[in-house]
Write a structure and sequence with these properties.
The protein has 2 domains: 3-214 and 329-410, Zn peptidases (Aminopeptidase, 3-Layer(aba) Sandwich); 216-327, Alpha-Beta Plaits (2-Layer Sandwich). The protein contains 12 helices and 13 strands. It has helices spanning 9-20, 37-52, 97-112, 139-145, 150-155, 164-173, 200-204, 242-256, 296-312, 334-346, 362-365, 392-410; strands at residues 56-59, 65-69, 79-84, 121-126, 189-195, 208-214, 216-225, 265-274, 284-293, 318-327, 330-331, 351-356, 371-376. Strand 1 (56-59) and strand 2 (65-69) form a beta hairpin. Helix 1 (9-20) runs antiparallel to helix 3 and helix 3 crosses helix 12.
């Protein structure tokens, strides 16, 4: 099947670049964080495109956006495809947005070319995938799949003290006429296109990554409690210096956890020091830990060791280690993976199987329905940066493969779980 007959590549690229104008940064990136004014503007633009194509927009209590092309059997579990519209503070044009725009293009092209799906097909943009404003990320997909309680999600706060609940209420007020769906419903399948966020496809000169699964991830919030003191008068032996305790913990964690094997990924990504004054012994340090590994046994053992090491090296301070995310490695549906590989082959796009090192909403959808992902290359493997880039040809190729797989699902009577 010729890729040019499946999508309008120029429209796809134009819309993707138009979306990148919302939250554009001086360095060419995007700052469009979850539930912000920028995301409100992005919703309005994307909803406008969908309504033009005859699709119906709706949302839910978690501010997930659903754009529905009606099928013949409205009662059958719909097919979902999409990604997210929020970004990192210094993010790029493609992370998340390319997946939503490719999904919208695949569905709009299907409708334009007279394809009536057997059941509803829904383009979705999940709330707060990134976790940059509100931590942890993937709140929308976790709420949808029942993995996190909506009340717990609403209680989380950003750096300014604004709760997710307050931001959600304000967000919904911007769309007073948008119908609300129940939080979570049965799905027939889920597809997600994304830039790789790594260098493997580019290095192998492959256009399509058939994602086999996502490596496991654990995150922790660690709080070290000491005591303030005068930097000029308090003896070293009498200090309960929270920053010194943090330095010991960080050093041993990097040395031991970071050296487990070549596949381990250990990161201390955010550190907050109190009172953060030049002549005061720090009384409190809060820091984040991000741990990833494809082997769940290794991941679990490393997570337990992190908690033990923090407690061993905190003295004379107190320490609290709070697990935030516990997401085991998963495998995507083999039939959908085979369909992606076959579509790439038929369209003559070089492809390869690839494990996702980054987390995605598809991880959570895979627990409730058949799910799969398509990767396309990004220049130098760079993502979560303002110079993030994907070639127009690669975006079009990924969207065309997505469109072919979607048609195989949507024009068939069913897919069994």
């Amino acid at each position: 099947m010729a890729s040019g007959t499946l999508i309008n590549r120029d429209r796809l690229w134009t819309r993707l670049m138009s979306l990148a104008e919302i939250g554009a940064t001086p360095a060419g990136g995007v700052n469009r964080q979850a539930l912000s004014d920028g995301e409100i503007a992005a919703w309005r633009r994307v909803i406008g495109w969908a309504v033009e194509a005859g699709m119906t927009p709706s949302t839910d209590a978690a501010a997930n956006l659903f754009l529905t092309l009606a099928g013949r059997d409205r009662a059958a579990p719909p097919f979902l495809l999409g990604s997210h519209l929020d970004s990192q503070p210094t993010g790029g044009k493609f992370d998340g947005a390319a997946g939503v725009m490719a999904a919208l293009e695949a569905v709009v092209s299907l409708a334009e070319q007279g394809g009536t799906p057997a059941r509803d097909v829904i383009v979705v943009a999940w709330m707060n995938e990134e976790g940059s404003r509100f931590a942890p990320g993937m709140m929308g997909s976790e709420a949808f799949t029942g993995e996190r309680d909506i009340d717990a999600i609403r209680a989380a706060r950003d750096a300014d003290g604004i709760t997710v609940g307050e931001a959600l209420d304000r967000f919904h007020q911007a769309f007073p006429d948008l119908p609300h769906r129940p939080l979570g419903f049965a799905a027939g399948a889920y597809l997600e296109l994304h830039i790789e966020q790594g260098p493997l496809l580019e290095a192998a000169d492959r256009t399509i990554g058939v994602v086999t699964g996502i490596q496991g991830k654990k995150t922790f919030q660690v709080v070290v409690e000491g005591a303030e003191g005068h930097a000029g008068t308090l003896a070293q032996s009498e200090r309960r210096d929270a920053l010194a305790a943090f330095a010991r913990m960080a050093s041993v964690l990097h040395a031991e956890i970071g050296a487990i094997d070549a596949d381990i990924k250990f990161t201390v990504g955010r550190v907050t020091v109190m009172p953060n004054a030049p002549s005061v012994v720090p009384s409190r340090v809060s820091f984040s830990i991000d741990l990833r590994h494809p082997d769940n046994a290794v991941l679990d053992a490393a997570g337990a060791r992190i908690m033990a090491l923090c407690r061993e090296h905190a003295r004379p301070c107190a320490v609290t280690v709070t697990p935030l995310v516990d997401a085991p490695s998963n495998q995507f549906d083999p039939r959908l993976r085979a369909s992606i590989a076959e579509a790439a082959r038929e369209q003559e796009h070089p492809a390869m199987p690839i494990l996702s090192a980054a987390g995605h909403d598809a991880r959570h959808l895979a627990k409730i329905c058949p799910a799969a992902m398509i990767f396309i290359p990004c220049r130098d493997g760079a993502s979560h940066v303002e110079h993030e880039w994907a070639e127009p040809d690669h975006v079009a190729a990924g969207a065309s493969v997505l469109a072919q797989v979607l048609r195989g699902l949507a024009l068939a009577p069913a897919i069994e779980a």
